[in-house]
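re: ur question from yesterday

yeah so i grabbed the chain u mentioned. its 156 aa long if i counted rite. heres the sequnce exactly as i have it in my notes:
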Amino acid sequence: MKRANQKGAAAVELAVLLIPLIIIATGVTELGRAFFQYNALVKGTRDGVRFLTMKGPLDPADPSTAGDIAQAKCLVVYGNSTCTGSTRVRELDTTMITICDAATCPATHSAQPTGTGVVNLVTVTITGYAFTPILSLVVPDPLMFNDISSTMRQVL
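ran it thru and got these structure tokens back, copy pasting raw so excuse formatting
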């Protein structure tokens, strides 16, 4: 085959391969964004549960502990206890946060036996968060995360 007959072959190969390469690159980018948002949500639940481990059992009806619950939810969503600034991830709000401790879930979180005695537990959960991709061509729109929660031992 002569060299003159191969003119434009590289351009055709590039055209054939460019679309799959762009789709793969976009998919990897969206997957990276999903991992980033998931990790930010996990960090939020850890911050909220760590704050609540230093508090006693929380009663949402008691005004003295209602502030602690609100501060914990703000820590999860905003990263601070005053609910100021931007949220950790888009479309996350305090209504998605549930808190379960010895007062609100006594069957599963109060006086749990361990090898050295009993402990109270506290759990902070994010429910119903949907990851919204920039390009829904590669990732389904929206992609629902499972419940994200963290549990730690609470002071007695």
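noticed a couple things. The longest strand covers residues 117-126. also The chain has one domain: 6-154.
anyway ttyl
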